[in-house]
Amino acid sequence: MKKLFFFFLNAFLIVSSYSQKTTSSAGEGIAPCGTDYLHEKSIKENPNIVFELEELEKIYKKEYEKVPLMKSGSYNITIPVVFYVVHDGGTSNIPDSQVQSQLTALNSYFSPHNINFCLATKLGASPTLPTVGNSVQTTPGIIHVLSSTLANHNINTAASQQALITGTAGYNITSDKFLRIWIVKDILDNNQPTGILGYAPVPLTTSLLDGIVVKYNTIGNAADCPNCLTNYNQGKTLIHEVGHYFGLYHTFHEGCQGSESGTCLDKGDKVCDTPQSSVPMANCNTVTNSCPENADNDDLSNFMGYTVDPCKDHFTQGQADRMFAVLSSFRSVLFSTENLVDVGACSANLISSAINPSSYLSCTNNTITFSSPYTSTSQYSYIWDFGDPSSPNNIATTPSAAHSYQSAANSPYTVTLTVTRNSDNVSSTSTKKIYITACQPIQSSQGTWIVSSSNLLKFNTGVPVFDPGFPNNQIINPYTIANQNDSNGNLLFFTDKTYVYNNTPSAINTTPIALDPWQGRGFSTLILPKPNSTDKYYIFSNTIKTTVQSFNDSHGFRFSEIQENSGNISMNSIRQPIFDSAMGSFFQTQLGAFYNGSGITAIKKNNSQNEESYWILTTLKGVDNKTYIAVFLFDNISGIKYHSHYLSPLNIETNLIMLEASPNGNKIFMYNPNWGSSSFILDFNKAQGIINNPKLISYDPMGINESASFSPDSNLLYYIEAQRRLYQVNLNSTDPDQTKILVATENYPKVLGQMQLGPDGKIYIDGTYSDCLKVIHNPNNLCTTDNYNNCNYYFYGPKKNPGGNQYLSFGLPNMIDAQQSTAYINSTNSISHYLEGCNTYKFFPDYYGQSFSWDFGDIASGSNNTSTAANPTHTFTVGNDPQYTFTVTLKNSSGTVIAQKQIVINNTTNTITGSSDTCADSGENITNNFINLQQGQSVIWTITGGSGTIQGSNDQENVLVAWTQLPGILKATITNEFGCQKEFDTQILENCCPVSLVFSNTETGSSVVYNASDNIVTNNNYSVNSGIDVSLKAGSHILLQPDSHIKSGAVFLARIENCDGTSNRYISALSEKNNPPRKPHNYNFIKSTSRSTQDNEINGLNVYPNPANSFLYITTAANGVKNITIYDVVGKEVLNTTTANETINVSSLNAGIYMVKITEEGKTATRKLVIQ
């Protein structure tokens, strides 16, 4: 048996191996499960899927630890199910009783593992499940659909899968809320029989079906299934497929790999208590071991094998744990209380307080309606708190309630709903945030967007609202949306890179603009007004063919001209090639157009306020097969003309590279929206059309990097990594890549998609399985590790109207981010600047002009104080003052001041605290020091005097040093976010005083000094004779026992102060000070096995900070359960605790010196502790 580790690997997406179409024994040459076939096909068509699977595997690993805690109690999972009986009017139209018997079989085999199945009966406020067409639903949750076409289901095409969804479930029965099971007459491949009995497609592959397809003659048991196949008449085919849906592999996955205990979690079926099989087996009559490297026989009765129904009877415990982990990690919405109540699946004993507002964004004084999951006032009571205490209407007690907010000052408002079931007083409480704006009307050429499947989003009121009257479901390729409005924001037309639609919307072309097999992942089409024209527009597209396509005149960099006449839209030309003979031998070309690129962005260009022209940037491949960013000038003189190019630091084979421009037009972000690439920030000289200065932004290679957007002030960049993580990057940093802050994550199956900056200064994000866009409300706000959502990201934004698709999906328009109003502010503040190094900035003019005169206000820099460059770089002269202010002035060619910008440079001060002395010759030779790092600072500690070894890391706020020679110097080198460095040091002195002294003698010599860091205790009859000077110094207390005598003529001094002795001083204090021999002293150190400072049996023990005043951290190499006892100086126990935590609260202890005893795994060590 493979050794069982309670550890889960590999996300449930990798639920099948490559196709295994033969079976042993009674194989009959069929593969009853089609999951392998589909998975193999998906990976073959898109090998990058493997990266996404690995990305989800990481998520799975982080979540698996929660499973034992959930399973330790009475935790049960209920799965809401909808069955679709898709038939041709014959025997495939099985009765509801047969489906019910299948449901009984599911519960019979899954309920021992705390997983149950229940029919869904409704959706939201609707008392029944919505159906499509003439579907019949006698039993809620079992829907019969008559369609001979759909009943003979083709496994191999996305069109067939989409048709099955559209013709049965429609847009409302979605995979995040329901386990959808389609019962069909047959499963075909290119209309040919396959012998496949069922399949559960792998999510995120080319399969659109996140659910299960199974043949009708395997459903239910023999008594209820007269037409069932002989060996498949116990309902176990569906049990097998549900195992896939819950994340299990076949027992023969990857053959004999994973048979050994060291690989069983990574290879094979990734479950350690299921013996691997080399090939699938069809019957269980013969005991066999097909993988001899494992002593166990094949598990031929396992549900995840290919044996027939009479053979199968169990899942292993490891498989059950894996299913539980997958559901908990990736399908938690499915079995959540809110969802079970919403879909009416065995929810009678459940209670939900889910809040459904009519809008998450609203203007002041607008009314928002809030709905609860219920309407009954006899069964439930309700308390609404709208988070608006100044309003007299802040509280409501009805199932649904309305509220309007009078002020945006306290936005966002937190709305709280408590629902109580009256029969037993069981309650549920939930919250939602509502963002309120003091709206001002927005009249902008970007004031209307086409989103997802042609949903119309309007910003004109001041907050974005979807237009309920605009028809949707028009768009073919939502990834490639672009739309054009008039100057007031009224929609003129839009495109999905295939067709152009007017504002009714109706397509005006029959020939596609481009045949884009990639569906233009990202923004590969863009609309620009023709310069100095009021009625003509160019639709630019850049399209790459796939390896199976032939070149046609839609591929490459092209434009189509659109004519607008009083709102009527027509096409003047289509698929016009963009080419420049001067570069014809430099860039790749096909059919007269520059070729092999994708992303397009544009930046407004102006030499004067009245000139209308644009820089157009796109990616192209050179004949050297390298990637270039090509810059074209689009004006009313030359039309579209090549201007410059820049060798891309990002070079990938497919050249699917996207470009995003900052609103001020001074920065370009380039990234690969596919898998496995980093990205770069580049500078753009918008006066001269030149790109330079790339800076790396590193991505996790395991995932789709969907989109990016700059903040309105162009100082911050937001990007999405692996479709699930939203990051912010500070561009005003010498190394922006080191400033990344994780703002938010999205949980599977939801994803983060495309991003677009809105005319209201907020950033909007699309995704899946949501009826809302997500919003970054304050994108100019810098986030920090302590305040990671300072930008106010919220996953509920503009809300889609009911009807059509239940959810929004991918699709935001590619707009001109660097517009005239943002790139050419034309004000006294028309200067942008970015940090390049220590006190070094690069400047960009945000005004019309071609000649520049800069004065940096830094007279001390001499001749470097001025510049005539378009984008100059200057290093400011900074000394030791706390702050410096420089006024940068920009003048035009006539010497007129255009703009000024103040640069303020702060010199921060850091302080080293902590230890100041120790004893290098003892077991207590470790010091612990701290330095106060500010946001953006990092530290490196080094030893520059004496000698010793840094224990652990040298780049944290605190540092531990084991000294071997003192005095020593400890140096902290601080680097701030601007690249400036400062050095701070502290001296560590030698101090080898004993902790305590105990002695009994008569002082007869001359002078003597006793030092102890903690206490000095004399025994009885201690005497100081005449003529003797004695000094006692102790850090805590000095105790003279009874019958101590200080004789006449003696000088005796006892002081409570820090020990001032070094090793030499201590030795001299205990030696005679004159030639005559002194009576020997009977002194000894306090030392016991329970409170020794010398034993150190625990590996990697660190106790810090020391001195401490509130919390004490105790870390070890094992980090196991520790018993910690603290004693005061007289040996009294003051604290005793057993804990696995690293933190101990010592704030209750008085100032003084203590001993800490630590016991872990039978080993003991003690440490001295100072409480300040």
TrEMBL record:
Family of the protein in this entry: Belongs to the peptidase M43B family.
A GO molecular-function descriptor: metal ion binding
PROSITE patterns membership: PKD
SMART domains according to UniProt: PKD
Record keywords, A-Z: Disulfide bond, Hydrolase, Metal-binding, Metalloprotease, Protease, Signal, Zinc
PANTHER family: METALLOPROTEASE MEP1 (AFU_ORTHOLOGUE AFUA_1G07730)-RELATED (PTHR47466:SF1), PTHR47466
Species of origin: Flavobacterium suncheonense GH29-5 = DSM 17707
Protein name (database record): PKD domain-containing protein
BP GO annotations: proteolysis
Keyword Zinc-finger: no
InterPro entries, alphabetized: GCX_COOH, Ig-like_fold, MetalloPept_cat_dom_sf, Peptidase_M43, PKD/Chitinase_dom, PKD_dom, PKD_dom_sf, Secre_tail
Domain PKD: 367-418, 851-912
Protein origin, superkingdom: Bacteria
